[in-house]
Amino acid sequence: MVVRASVCLRRLARGRRSAQVGFGRFLANRRVTVDRLIEGWSDRTAAAVEGRHVLAIQDTSEIDFRTTPKRRRGLGEIGKGGGRGVLLHAMLALDADNGNCLGLVGGRIWTRRGRIKVTHQKRRTENKESHRWITTAEQGKAVLAAAAKVTVLADRESDIFAEWAKLPEPDFHLITRSMHDRRLASGEGLHAAAERFAFTTKRLVALPEREHKRKARPAWLSLRFGKVELVRPRNTRDRNLPKSVSLTLVEVIERDCPTGAEAVHWRLLTTHEVADAETAWQIVDWYRMRWTIEQFWRVLKLQGLRLEDSQLETAERLIKLTAIATKAAVTTMQLVQARTAPDCEPAAVAFSEDEMAVLDKLNAEVQGATRLQKNPHRKRSLKWAGWIIARLGGWDGYPSSKPPGPITFKHGLEEFHAMVAGWSLRDVCMP
User: Contact, 191 vs 181, CB < 8 A?
Assistant: First the structure.
C-alpha cells in the first residue's frame, strides 16, 4: 500500500490475477483477525519512544464507504443521515520536543450493529462506545512503557470523568479539551470558575487551515489558568469512581476576532502541574500538536490511500483492509515528514532491519563522486533513508535542488521494495 499509494487490490496486484485472489483470500482468512492486525501497528513504536516525552494523540474518524439501500455490505450507520461505514479509533505517538511521528500505538475498528435501546445515562462506562478512549489509553501504557513520560492528547469527546479518575499516573498525563460545564467541589460550574481567573499574557499563534471550516490565519490568544476540582457526575452508574479529581484548567480566548471568522476558545483540562504562564503556554502548544492526527486522516482517506473508495463486498474485509491501510498511512506520513524534520529520528521507525541492510548497500551506489552528491545525513537516520529513497526515485541529490515530493518518494519506494524482494532471495539455493 505504501509503494502503490492505494488500497485497491487490483492495483496492489499490478494486474496479476493470482496476486489479487491471494490478497482477497488473506482478508477472508478467519485466522487473520482485526485484533492481531492492530497489535502489529505498534511493532516498531515501542522501541522508537524509549527515553522520550511522548504525546499520545487519539481520535476517531468515520470511514464512509459508498453504499446503496440494496448494497449495504453489512456496514452500520455512521454520523448523520444515511451514511454507512466503519469507525476507526487510533492513537499516534509523537515526540513532544519536535513533533516527529514515532508510529501507531493502538486503537479499535468497528461497525455498528443496530441501535442501542438502553439510554446513555443508564449504562456503565465499559458498556458505552466512548469507553474506547479509556481502553486505547490503557493500551498506550503497555506500548509506551519505555518512554520517559507520556501525555495523552484528545479533543472534546474524550472529556469523560472516568478517564480523569482512572488513567493518570506519575508519568502518564492527560490533556483534553473540555466539553462539559462540569460541577466543581466549590459548588459552582467550571465556566463560572474560569471567569474568576485573571488573564496573564497574550501570544500570536498561527492557526492551521481546517478543511471546509477555517482558513489558515494568525490569532492573538489571551491566556488564563487555575486549579479546579471536578465532582463525580450525579447520574453516573460508576459509583466506584472517586468523588472528585483535581486538575488544572488552561483557557485561551481570541478576544479580538476578525469579522466573519469564528473566535478561538479552548478550555484545556490537564493533569500536569501548571505553576506559571510559561508552563500554561506549553500545555497549549502540546494541544496544538493534536492536529497531526488530522493530517493522518487526510493521508488515509483523501490525499493518499483513498480508503473510502474501496469496493470490497463485506464489512469484515473492509474492517481488515482499514487496519492494514492505517499502518500504511503512518509509514507514508513519516517519510514525507522526514523531509523537513530534524536529523534525529532513526530509520527503524519506518524500516525493518532487513530493509536497512539494503539501504546500507544502496547508499554507496546512489551517492555521487563529489561532496555535494554525498548523503549528508547521519547514517541510519530517517532522513538518511529518505535521501536514498529520493535518489532511487529520480531526485538529483543536490542541496540547491527542490526537495523531493511525495511522487518522487513513491517512485523510489517502488524501486526499493523490488530490491528488498531480491535481497530476501540472496541465500535461496535453486536446484
Answer: yes
Q: What is the pLDDT of residue 118?
A: 61
Alpha-carbon distance of 58 to 96, in angstroms, equals: 15
Grid cell in block for residue 253: 480566548
What sign has the CA pseudo-torsion 329, 335, 339, 341? positive
DSSP label at 351?
Answer: S
DSSP assignment of 303-369: SSS-GGG---S-HHHHHHHHHHHHHHHHHHHHHHHTTTS-TTSBGGGTS-HHHHHHHHHHHHHHS-S
Contact residues for 300 (Cβ-Cβ < 8 A; gap 6+): 61, 307, 325, 326, 329
Could you tell me if 156 and 217 lie in one domain? yes
- Go through the chain and tell me how many residues it has: 431
355 lies in which domain range?
A: 347-423
Pairing of strands 84-95, 76-77: antiparallel
- Give CA–CA dist 324/315, Å, rounded: 14
What is the predicted pLDDT for the residue at 425? Answer: 67
Q: Is 315 exposed, middle or buried (0-12, 13-18, 19+ CB in 10 A)?
A: buried
Closest among 243, 235, 287 to 266, alpha carbons compared: 287
Are 248 and 270 in contact by the 8 Å Cβ rule? The answer is yes
Eight-state DSSP code of residue 156:
G
Intervals of the chain under pLDDT 50:
none
- Sign, Cα dihedral of 407, 412, 413, 417: positive
Residue 114 has a pLDDT of 72
User: Facing residues of 9 across strands?
Assistant: none
What digits encode the pLDDT tens for the residues 6-42? 888 888 887 788 888 888 899 999 999 999 999 999 9
Establish if 15 belongs to a structural domain: no
Helix (H) and strand (E) counts for the chain? Answer: 13, 10
C-alpha cell belonging to residue 424: 530476501
Q: Residue 93 belongs to a domain with what CATH number?
A: 3.90.350.10
Query: Same structural domain for residues 291 and 361?
Result: no
Supply 414's cell numbers.
517502488
Decide if 2 is inside a domain.
Answer: no
- Strand spans (E) along 208-290: 217-231, 244-253, 265-270
Structurally, the chain folds into a number of domains equal to 2
Give the pairing type, strands 172-177 and 149-154.
parallel
Tally the C-alpha atoms within 13 A of residue 381's C-alpha that lie toward its C-beta.
16
